[in-house]
Recover the amino acids of this structure.
């Protein structure tokens, strides 16, 4: 595996900062930090040894068995994505220059996107949160709760895109979005040689159209279609400008193919305890 130089690494000469121990949802200063400051904030997570999708799913499950609610893990993940999205918006002069489009799959990766949408709205952005699923609701309880919470956010427009036709409507004006967040498929999604099915496939096409129009793309955990273990990619596949992955670096994002699709990579801590982490 060839490491990508965009992964954060801790500075050997930097004095410890008390904020280093704060998890994203508990960090009052997080929203508004630039990308360099976020790398420094999360340097400890980036310095851990890399793992693949199966090991990450195991660590997540063991954390919940040991009493860390899945809802809390999702809150930290979404807060981290929101902070990184705001940072790239500021860096590209696109913050508040249009609505942020958050494309969310039906599982927990989509749940992270719903949380990010809430934090971005509270930071003053207009957000369109899109549930991309044939089902009327997310398929996991944690994602469902965060989808419901968006109904109380005045700056968030909730949209259900159940079909290819729905996504074609979204694609018409996607170049007007300030930023697009890809929260379609994560650790448990189809990547590598697996085929993407509609409506997820059509949602990836929306992301690709946005990228062609120079809209910054932020991926949650992994660009949709990229396998977090191998780095293999499906077709179509999202090519992100920035990927926020969680807990540890991922082996798939350190391969040549994975790194080329992930763009810059931030590794955010989400509160998985050491005793749940065997990687």
């Amino acid at each position: 595996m060839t490491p990508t130089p965009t992964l954060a690494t801790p500075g050997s000469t930097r004095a410890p900062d008390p904020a280093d121990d704060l998890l994203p949802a508990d960090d009052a200063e997080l929203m508004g930090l630039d990308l360099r400051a976020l790398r420094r904030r999360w340097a400890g997570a980036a310095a851990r040894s890399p793992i693949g999708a199966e090991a990450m799913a195991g660590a997540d499950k063991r954390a919940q068995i040991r009493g860390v609610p899945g809802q809390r893990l999702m809150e930290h993940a979404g807060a981290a994505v929101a902070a990184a999205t705001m940072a790239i918006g500021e860096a590209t002069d696109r913050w508040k220059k249009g609505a942020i489009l958050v494309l969310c799959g039906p599982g927990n990766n989509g749940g992270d996107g719903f949380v990010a949408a809430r934090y971005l709205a509270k930071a003053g952005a207009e957000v369109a949160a899109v549930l991309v699923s044939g089902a009327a609701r997310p398929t996991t309880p944690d994602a469902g709760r965060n989808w419901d919470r968006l109904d109380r956010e005045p700056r968030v427009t909730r949209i259900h895109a159940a079909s290819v036709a729905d996504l074609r409507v979204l694609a018409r004006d996607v170049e007007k979005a300030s930023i697009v967040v890809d929260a379609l498929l994560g650790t448990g999604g189809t990547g590598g040689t697996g085929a993407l099915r509609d409506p997820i496939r059509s949602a990836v096409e929306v992301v690709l159209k946005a990228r062609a129009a120079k809209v910054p793309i932020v991926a949650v955990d992994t660009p949709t279609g990229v396998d977090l273990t191998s780095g293999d990619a499906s077709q179509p596949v999202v090519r992100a400008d920035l990927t926020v992955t969680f807990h540890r670096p991922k082996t798939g994002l350190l391969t040549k193919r994975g790194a080329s699709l992930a763009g810059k990579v931030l590794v955010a801590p989400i509160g998985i305890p050491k005793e749940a982490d065997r990687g």
